[in-house]
Amino acid sequence: MDYFGYVALHGFHHMAFVTPATPNQAHSMVGNRFQPVLSAFALLATTLALVVFPAGANGQVVDLAVGQTVAGTLARGDTAEYRIEAGEDYFIFGEIDQISVDAVVRVLNPEGEQRARVDVTARGADRFSGETRNAGTYTIQVIPFEDEEGEYTITLHRLEPLETDPDKLVDQLMSPYDTDDSPGAAVRVWRDGRTLFSKTYGMADLAYRIPFETDTRTNIGSTSKQFTAFAVMLQAERGALSLDDDIRLHVPELPEFDQTITVRHLLTHTSGLREIFNLLVMTGRRIDRGDYVDRDEILAVVQKQPALQNAPGAEWNYNNTAFALAALIVERTSDQPFDEFMADHVFGPLGMTRTMVRPHAEFIVPERSQGYAPASEGYREIRDLGASVGAGGIYSTIEDLQTWVENYIAPEVGSPAIVEEMTTPFILTDGDTTNYGLGLFIDEHRGLKRVHHGGADIAHRSMLAYYPELRAGITTQSNHASFDSNVTFRLAEAFFDDAMEPETPAAADDGSFDPASYDPDAFDDFVGRYALDAAPTFILSFSREGETLYTQATGQPRIEIEPTSDSTFALTVVEASVVFHRDDAGGVEGVTLFQGGQEQHATRLDDDADDAGAWEPTPDDLEEFAGHYLSDEIETFYTVAYVDPSTSDEQVDDEDEAPEPHLVLQHRRLDDATLTPGELDTFSGGGLTLTFERDRNGMVLGFYLSNTRTRDVRFERVR
Q: Within the chain, which residue ranges are assigned CATH 2.60.120.380?
């Protein structure tokens, strides 16, 4: 669950544009193609590293005015340019209508640096919106995709100062969704029992032109996890189970691993089980395209798992499998289907009359929103994830979600002890504290405790945040795959600013930090590679070229970062940041990545000790890996193909550098993925990492396949 498709950009930041979902966990689109990416940096695949373009390189620059529609024609090699004069902290919203040409839109800041790239549909409207950080001239470039030719129009809908009134700010930020031809959104804010704001935008159903309303039932994705945890806690409070029970007490058909998994491990994402959706993507299941997943498959997947990925309680690794099993345990301890249990014991008693568990993806949910993702022209309908009961699968409304949070404040169902335990961070076996309780993230937001959880099915987006000290909450919901649920926190700052600490830059010794004062040479302490604790084959690399600092994740483009203190850095084209950690002796030992309301820790690698780093395999080296590989665990074949472009019939332009020999990972149901070498005998591509295994004579026997949440699935070479 937890899919998102939003990019915040420095210089032209909070840039929301229509892109297909990329999960923290699902799929990203490059150009007009989908491919699986399952990593903490998945969103990077939809963006480009910093690029500088000269203004007016291909002709006259046209000034755009609000309300003005300008027609244009693109030929091969053209770049049309439009100019906008914007002040500091301005809001920009426009769209391009691709009448007969597939066009790419680039947004350049006053320094000529690319801060956004929009390329979603092949025909029809692509929208762009964002906020300016600096005053000056912003340039919008329109370029034909793959040398197409044809006509388009471009319209500037808004160019105005960013609103300071919270109600008006919501309207402004929701304007890209506030049309009768777009999937919609809903926002609700409350405090001390009083609703401060409640409004909807756009459409719940495009086919029947049904608008989004405050009582529209919407798939809340992984926001559902807190409800599953609450149900388990109710059963524990009634004596039907204990959080310390071995899960095999309730589901005895699960395999007996070397270490015991408890119910608590399920609810804290520390079980060590494979993550169901990540694993099924490895098998070639196109979950993003509606491939069905039955609940029974979860048991089958766990039964085939040969060993745990980590000792229970030792690692935090977001896991939908675990919550699906938790819902099953509720069913078996209550003798009720999960949807009936929730209706009888939670939703009904609380008066949440518009909330329900969807027991399977074909079940009819009355008066619901339909999920949508951009298509080559317009939108396509997206079905719900199958097998999401427990991990997701709940439909609710913004009104009912307020009722739910108010039960945290003054419980009518359950007890204060349940709420206390759910909102207390779990402590790992090594003593480290996670920022996750039972089905809920717990952190701090400008001096206030924040309890929250986002959610995303394939197309729906959700966020629910609770501020206990204010007795306040906020929720945003959408049926648009590109909706940024993190805008919830931005709006919380607008409505609750009076109670929050002032927003200031990261502090240096004198109480403020000027990025221009940062000495790039100091970054050399951080240069190196860091392995994600939850997925050791996923590497974050940090480098420096002169005064420019970069980070790059396994299988992802290199991204520029900027200092916010002497040890913290913000990614310039993704809403994410990193903080480096030193040991007692002052050496750099690790880094934490913050993205999408979650954090992932990575440990620094000793490149000298493991001969890792700049491994450059020769063509002969590459040929050793070519072959066919089978995983008995997931009953799946992959082919690793050796490609030597010099022996192919493909013509290479004289101006182009001749491509080098390389490996391509092939699967019957997935797009081919070019493999990039990393550490010795390790390659990445298509959101996957392959670590090859050799026998004592150096012969390649197989490989271990990993993505962020599912790792070390063994494939044996069969020929």
A: 3-162
Is 518-605 assigned to CATH 3.40.50.450? no
Q: Are strands 558-563 and 670-677 parallel, antiparallel or unpaired?
A: unpaired
Q: How far is CA 284 from CA 28, 300, 376, 381, 570, in A?
A: 16, 17, 22, 21, 34
DSSP annotation string for 377-430: BSEEEEPPPTT-BTTB-EEE-HHHHHHHHHHHHS-SSS-HHHHHHHTS--B-TT
CATH classification (class only), 619-717: mainly beta
Overall average pLDDT of the 164-177 stretch: 96
What tokens does 505 get?
């830059």
pLDDT at 657: 57
Over residues 327-350, the pLDDT tens digits come to 999 999 999 999 999 999 999 999
* 615 CB burial (10 A radius; 0-12, 13-18, 19+): middle
Q: For residue range 691-703, what is the model confidence (pLDDT) as tens digits?
A: 999 999 999 999 9
| Residue 339 near residue 328, CB atoms below 8 Å | no
For helices 487-496 and 166-174, the axis angle rounded to 10 degrees is: 160
Residue-wise pLDDT tens digits, 431-489: 999 999 999 999 999 999 999 999 999 999 999 999 999 999 999 999 999 898 989 99
Beta bridge partners of 561: 549, 571
Taking the CB of residue 547, how many other CB atoms lie within 10 A of it? 10
Q: Which CATH number fits domain 3-162: 2.60.120.380, 3.30.70.1050, 3.40.640.10, 2.40.110.10?
A: 2.60.120.380
Could you give the CA distance from residue 87 to residue 556 in angstroms, rounded to a whole number?
33
pLDDT tier for residue 531 given thresholds of 50, 70 and 90 = confident
- Radius of gyration in angstroms for the set of CA atoms belonging to the chain, rounded to a whole number: 25
Q: Quick check: helix, strand or coil at residue 478?
A: strand
Q: For residue 573, is pLDDT > 70? A: no
Q: What span, in angstroms and rounded, lies between the C-alpha atoms of 540 and 558?
A: 10
Angle, helices 320-334 vs 296-304, to 10°: value is 120
Q: What confidence tens digit (pLDDT) does each residue in 632-643 have? A: 999 999 999 999
In whole angstroms, what is the distance from residue 118 CA to residue 31 CA?
Answer: 9
The pTM score is 0.83
Extended beta strands in 145-255, E state: 150-161, 185-191, 194-201, 203-205, 210-211, 218-219
